[in-house]
Every structure is written in structure tokens, then in C-alpha cells.
Amino acid sequence: MSIMKLRLLIVAVYSFCFCDSEVFFNSRHDDVLEWQLPHSKPHKGRHWALIAAGSNGWINYRHQANACHAYQIMKRNGIPEENIVLMMYDDIAHNELNPTPGVIINHPNGPNVYEGVKIDYKRHDVTPENFLAVLSGDETLAKNGNKVIQSGPNDHIFVTFTDHGGPGFIAFPNERHLFANDLISTLKKMHREKKFKQMVLYIEACESGSMFENLLPKDINIYAITSANTTESSYVCYMDKLRQTYLSDYFSVSWMDDSDKEALDKESLQDQFRIVRNETEYSHVQEYGDESISREMLSEFQAGPEYRPSPPIVLPKVPCGVIPADEVPLAILRHRLKTAKDEVSKQQLMREIDELLELRDRVAKTMQDIVTLATGDDVGQYERVYTKGHRDIDFDCYVPVFNLFHKRCYNVARTYSANKQMGFLVNMCDEKIPSEKIMEAITRVCKE
Fold first, then answer.
1. Per-residue confidence (pLDDT) for residue 317, from 0 to 100
2. What is the 3-state secondary structure (H, E, C) of the chain?
3. Each residue of 24-43: pLDDT tens digit?
4. Burial call 360-374: b when 16+ CB within 10 Å, e when fewer
5. Which regions in the chain score pLDDT beneath 70?
6. By C-alpha distance, which of 392, 394, 404 is closest to 441?
7. 183 to each of 127, 129, 202, 211, 215, how far by Cα in Å?
């Protein structure tokens, strides 16, 4: 056989094997590498959504309304129900204070966002531990029949959380808190274990920037947007006269109204960030992590892989109001006072307002006494604790100090004015005051 004929035979065999083997390989190995199939299309990963409202009680109506609205967006845009995990306490729709039983709205005269939602974790199962376990696909939870994010290396995950927060933590029901270091540790572990291709998180909470600033790496394929920076409140939206509570939050209503009306395959995450940043007044919306992900279309995270645009939902523009989230209890009482019709009710509401204001003063005085004891005669250190902003958090010092204050002084989860005071604990740790000394001061000031 001549050399030329031999070369032609080799080419023919090569072409036959690799062209015909495409069907053979595809029939047996869905995850075959792209270079092995010259004409193959990249594998489309699954899309997952974890939606969590971290509060309970009628006064926090807006958080569960936000969560239900987010669920409707994901479901309407093609994320399968089995790929959506919803965590919410579920004490609002049929609450005795609800004038429309079974109905939750997120916008004045808006649709019932509670209709059709499937809640996977409710009541006492809405915990920080379950939140992290669901996100990371905990096998024990899954074996016990609970829904978790069972994602892989080609998948996209969208996480949205709404509730109260403070420096380095977000709150959950039943007096629980998720600290930023635990969240970041879980995210890093998921990245190492290749449990996602890209992840996006939207966090609505006061001081929510502290969950990520100087903590979330830029090289683990995660992009996060927060409703506020590291030191400021987020703001609530839509006081409803009938329900006498707030229906939404500024940041949440901004991104969800945008997602309702836009084609998600035509608008990028960066587009939405800029829109929401411009529309969210009074707090400064922030972005963290891998900002290159922000070039992806919204449909890559807030819709299913086979997304088809649905008709836009555009509700009438309504002014939000200007109330920081930690001022909501006081704002609701003042609203009720304005609408009270009899003198007895007015007097009772005035007493409740006075009690709330006195509580705020007591909390501030308690913290002042703790700082005074912990700093001793160092006037300069005392002033720094009260004047500097907190950025980096020493969690080894902060977490035990926080937990002792929460246990002995005030329930941080329910005493909203205490959230703002936690920054001074951060600052004392930043001043390198030993945690033992701070805890001794807490014990002396807050006697059980």
C-alpha cells in the first residue's frame, strides 16, 4: 500500500469514528467534554432559587409579602417548583389581624402574591441552620424528605433574603441570627465542592452590606447585591391603611417591580442594579463579589433555562414613604394614633408610643454603660467606639459578645432599637478590647 493510500485510509477511519461516535457518546454520557464532540452544544445547567423571609408577626408583614412576590416571579418565568425552596413563617395570610384572610399583597391594590405558593420550611423550621443546609444541599435533610438545593457544577443559584439585620448578621424567627462569617464559610465550601456555576444573592436588611464587605471573595463566582451599605438602615414601603402595616421594602419593591415588567433575557443584572440603586432612595444599594457576573441576563437567575417572556406586569406608581426599617414599630403606632376614633384608644396608643421611646433610650443607656466599663479611663478609646464606622468585623470577639448581650440585656431579634447598638460591640472588638472584658461589662450592667 502506498503512503498516499495509507494517509487517505487513516483520514477516513478518523472521520468515521469521531463523526459517528457523537451519537454513541451522547447516548451514554451526557456530561462528555465539549472537545470530544466538535458540534455539540454546551450543557444547559439547572436554575435554582432559595427565597427566605426571616421574620414573623403582623408588624413584619412586608417580609413575607416580599418572599411570596419573589416566588411568583421565579415560578412565572419558568423555574420549576421543585427547584424553588421557600422559607417563611406563614403566620400572615390567616392572621387574626388580616382583614382579607388568605390574601397577602406586596403593593397597594396589588394581586394576591400568596396564591399558589408552596412553602417548604415554615414556623420553627425557618432557622439559620436550615437556610445554610438547604443552600448547600445537605444530604441528611434530603434523605429525610426535605427539599434542598441539589445543584451541580453547571447550575445557577439565585438567593433572596428579606428581614431585619445589623452589623454582620441577618435575623431569623425564634430569636435566631445568621452571622456573615458562617454564610461566607458555606459559600466558599460550596465553591470548592463545585456545587454551582454562578450564584447571585439579593439581601434586604439594615446594614446588609456588612454581610459581604471585605468578606466575599471576587473569585468564587458569586455576585451579591444588598439594600444598604454596612452602617445604614434599609427603608420600608407602602403603609396600608386597611391592614395598618407596611406592605414592602424600598429595595425589594424596586427589583421585583423591575423584574415584573421587563423581558428578563434583555436586561442584565448590572442593568437591574443600576435601576434599583437609582430608585431606592435614602439607603445606598451595594454590589459585592464577582462583578463580571453582573453582565449576565436576569433570565440566567430569575427564570428557567427555557425562559420565554411573559406579559409584563405594571402596577400604578405609588409613593413609598420615608421610614427606616428599625423605626417601623413606632411609625405604625403613630399611624394608628392618627386614625384612632375614640379617646380610650388614643390614650392607650400614646402610652405604647411613650413606652417604645423609653425602651429605645434604655437600650442606648445600657450600651453606653457597657462601653464605659469596657473602655475604663481611656477617653480616646471611648470616643472612637462611638464615632468610627465599622467595616471589618472580628467575629471571634463579636459573636460571643453579641450572644451574651442578646441573652442578658435585650432580645436583639425583637428589640429593633438594639440592632443599631450592635455596631458599638463591633467597634469595641475592633479596638482590641478583649472579649472577656466586654462580656464582664455586659454581665455587670445587665443583671439577670
1. 86
2. CCHHHHHHHHHHHHHHHHHHHHHHHHHHCCCCCHHHCCCCCCCCCCEEEEEEECCCCHHHHHHHHHHHHHHHHHHHCCCCHHHEEEECCCCCCCCCCCCCCCCCCCCCCCCCCCCCCCCCECHHHCCHHHHHHHHCCCHHHHHCCCCCCCCCCCCEEEEEEECCEECCEEEECCCEEEEHHHHHHHHHHHHHCCCCCEEEEEEECCCHHHHCCCCCCCCCCEEEEECCCCCCCCEEEEEECCCCEEEEEHHHHHHHHHHHHCCCCCCEHHHHHHHHHHHCCCCCCEEEECHHHHHCECHHHHCCCCCCCCCCCCCCCCCCCCEEHHHHHHHHHHHHHHHCCCHHHHHHHHHHHHHHHHHHHHHHHHHHHHHHHHHCCCHHHHHHHHHCCCCCCCHHHHHHHHHHHHHHCCCCCCCHHHHCCHHHHHHHHHCCCCHHHHHHHHHHHCCC
3. 223 323 333 222 333 223 43
4. beebeebbeebbebb
5. 1-43, 390-391, 448
6. 404
7. 13, 10, 14, 8, 10
Where on the phi/psi map is residue 224: left (φ > 0), alpha (ψ -120 to 50), or beta? beta
The three cell numbers locating residue 113: 402574591
| Catalytic residue list | 164, 206
Residues 247 and 108: their CA atoms lie apart, in Å, by: 8
With contact defined as beta carbons under 8 Å apart, do 198 and 156 qualify? yes
Residue 176 main-chain phi, psi, to 5 deg: -110, 160
